[in-house]
Design a protein that fits this description.
Blueprint: E1 3-17, E2 22-24, E3 29-30, E4 34-51, E5 58-61, E6 64-65, H1 68-85, E7 90-98, H2 108-123, H3 129-137, E8 151-154, E9 165-169, E10 176-180, H4 191-201, H5 205-224, H6 228-247, H7 258-272, E11 278-280, E12 287-291, H8 296-303, E13 312-315, E14 322-323, H9 326-338
Parallel strand pairs: 5-7
Antiparallel strand pairs: 1-4, 1-14, 2-3, 4-7, 4-8, 5-6, 8-9, 10-12, 10-13, 11-12
Helix pairs in contact: 2-3, 5-6
Bound molecules: ligand DP6.
GO molecular function, one term: diphosphomevalonate decarboxylase activity
Family: Belongs to the diphosphomevalonate decarboxylase family.
Keywords: ATP-binding, Lipid biosynthesis, Lipid metabolism, Lyase, Nucleotide-binding
Length: 344
């Protein structure tokens, strides 16, 4: 009997220059580079046991055993890992999402980054985050970037071995992000389907691909200068350009809800009131506010007229993916069991 156990923690990330579209959907090679900020407030802890006696993979998420259908994607991902490690053992995977309140913010980014970290730990692989980012990519594109903390670029690369994450800056300065939870339901169109449909049908998509390299270049210059206004302006424009490709898809679709537009207006008002505060949105209605960490309390105060405390999640830049000791894993389990502040 062979039993191999590993555990890891990875943090979620929010793209400031978005990934929207694949050029190879099997290898998850993106059309463009993208650049994100890893968040310390949102993360996933995962434990894996490869066990030669198991007959199938199992997946337990936030203490709920997932169905066979829900485990399919995981098995597909583990097959890639098994082939690389030249093993055949099935695995028990247990994941805990640490997302304050039922925010619907559980992300595939932290999920696959934590899973690859746990696999590497179990299989005794060398701790090379760049190499691991390539494998995380095969689970979900945005997971590529969650191997590293701070600001991270995902280089689209030329092939499987060069499409990797590159850390840009640790983000340990006066930058923060507030997630505004406007609707915590499951999204109607997954980002995977949404981007494929956009690539296939939007006449504007080509222009998106053309403009991203300059956004990346300028964003890197802005990060280097720690220039929050420039970071925010580029991020807002980039997000709106991405959403415009969806509006121009055929048939069109959008993730915005009335509350999304209202929040965007309110962030513009914050700006008029003197706060450097900017918005970005992903494949869902929630709005993320990019701002100075030192302004977060005052901004929350301003927004408290419109939103409850539970709807505003503040975060600073988060750290790299890291393995967890047995004790740390036990602590996470206890935290999950003992707390109703966190839920999935
Ligand atoms: C809008 O990484 O969820 O959040 O690669 O198909 O799993 P798959 O898609 P996913 O897409 C994320 C899209 C985005 C922008 C971003 O995170 O860069």
């Amino acid at each position: 009997m062979i039993r191999l156990t590993g555990r890891a923690r990875a943090h979620s990330n929010i793209a400031l220059v978005k990934y929207w579209g694949k050029r190879d959907s099997d290898l998850f090679l993106p059309m463009t580079n993208s650049l994100s900020l890893t968040l310390d407030a949102l993360y996933t802890d995962t434990s894996i046991v490869f066990d030669s006696e198991l007959t199938e993979d199992t997946f337990t998420l936030d203490q709920i055993v997932q169905s066979k259908e829900q485990t399919e994607k995981l098995t597909h991902f583990l097959d890639i890992i098994r082939a690389k490690a030249q093993i055949t053992s099935k695995a028990n995977v247990t994941s805990l999402n640490f997302v304050p309140t039922a925010a619907g913010l559980a992300s595939s980014a932290s999920a696959y980054a934590a899973l690859i970290g746990a696999c590497a730990d179990a299989l005794g692989w060398e701790d090379d985050h760049k190499s691991l980012s390539k494998l995380a990519r095969r689970g979900s594109g945005s997971a590529t970037r969650s191997l590293f903390g701070g600001f991270v670029e995902w280089d689209k690369g030329t092939d499987d071995s060069t499409s990797v994450a590159i850390p840009i800056d640790d983000g340990q300065w006066d930058i923060g992000l507030i997630v505004l939870v406007l609707n915590n339901g499951k999204k109607k169109i997954s980002s995977r389907d949404g981007m494929a449909h956009t690539v296939a049908t939007s006449p504007f998509y080509e222009n998106w691909v053309k403009t991203v390299p300059s956004d990346i270049k300028q964003m890197k210059a802005a990060i280097y200068r720690k220039d929050i206004e420039m970071i925010g302006e580029i991020a807002e424009h980039n997000a709106l350009k991405m959403h415009a490709t969806m509006l121009s898809a055929n048939p069109p679709f959008w993730y915005f809800e009335p509350a999304t537009l209202l929040a965007m207006e309110r962030i513009r008002e914050l700006r008029q009131a003197g706060y450097p505060a900017y918005f970005t949105m992903d494949a869902g209605p929630n709005v993320k506010i990019i701002c100075q960490k030192s302004d977060m309390t005052a901004i929350m105060d301003e927004l408290s007229h419109f939103y409850t405390n539970d709807q505003m999640i503040t975060s600073a830049a988060g750290p790299d993916m890291r393995t967890l000791t047995e004790e740390e894993w036990a602590e996470s389990l206890a935290k999950k069991e003992g707390s109703n502040e966190y839920s999935h």
